[in-house]
Design brief:
By secondary structure, the chain is mainly α. The chain is globular, with a radius of gyration of 20 Å. 55% of the residues are buried.
Length: 391
Amino acid sequence: MRKLHINKTKYLFIIVSFLLWFPHFLYVSILSPYMESIGGGYTFIGIVLSSYGLMQLLCRLPIGIFSDLLKLKKPFIILGMIASTVSCTLFLTTDRLGWILVARLIAGLAASSWVAFTVLYSSYFTDKEVHRAMGRISFIIVVAQFLGMTFSGYLVDAWGWKAPFWIAALFSLLGTILSFFIFEPKERIERPSVKLNELASVIREASLLKVSVLSILAHSIIFSTMFGFTSHYALEIGFKPRELTFIVNAFMIPHAVATLFIGSVLVPRLGEWRSLLIAFSITAFITLMIPIVQTKWLFLVIQGFSGFTLGLIFPLLLGMSIEKISPDKRATAMGAYQALYAIGIFAGPFFTGIFNSMFGISAGFYFVGLLGLLATILVIMWGKSGKVQNL
């Protein structure tokens, strides 16, 4: 009976997870040109894009700690959905740059609740199924990203800049309502609370810190490119606004496929660190190639490779972040992990915006490409020094 109940709540949980991310990716691909259309420059756009990561940097670890101390995840999920609704509604009701910044900050608060989402979802599975569970929930994120970014161009073309925000606000409200019906297993509540003096040891866990550094670099890359300035560069080399959907498809379809591929094929055959080495090295090369490409078809091919390799990286790092942490401390570990990689969501677009303002838009791509090379070097060093099988 309990197993049947868990299976049912998994589907509801997946729906609510989708409704957390889908609204924000409805507008993310048009947010940068939208801000430019109402007077925002490269530097301000970079600040707004980075504010999303700054809020996660500040909020994710406290959410992880308090959800472990309270032995509750569901209330934080509900609060995250409420913040999502407020953010999308604010985007809808203003066209002032200052309030756009506030709306994006609140979106970062909503995204911070993902700590509770991932840990509660993993509680529906055995420890041996963690990678598969993280692959599944990462796939849902990618589907939300793909559908949101695909429809955004059509919505703007048909009904104007505000159309994605209308739809986003409605879906966020639906997600808020459904989040009240999520099931949280009682056995999680019966475990002893995590003591504050144990939290520092969790955060200092060597494997968690290494994975977090790599995730900072990976998030710097994706939030500076596909979720940042890729659309700007595409317009510069001849893409029309309505053709941005082709770029989204070229990136997101391989990205979605990769999230399912990593847990069932790549890691079992190559191991975690060798898989990371392949993915990061290709990502670095592809990112450095972007500012060289001037033809549409080759640009789309480049985006396909970038989407696939980044799709390999994120679920793998997500699973590695908590696999060596005891279950009663995983929310804290996940909070630390997600707070740390939020540095990349903040710093990547921030510094890329500065480089773009000073040296032109190509400079930003070279900057994040070098970050990919740095990640590759770190994977080689840490893979050799650790006791990692298959490397």
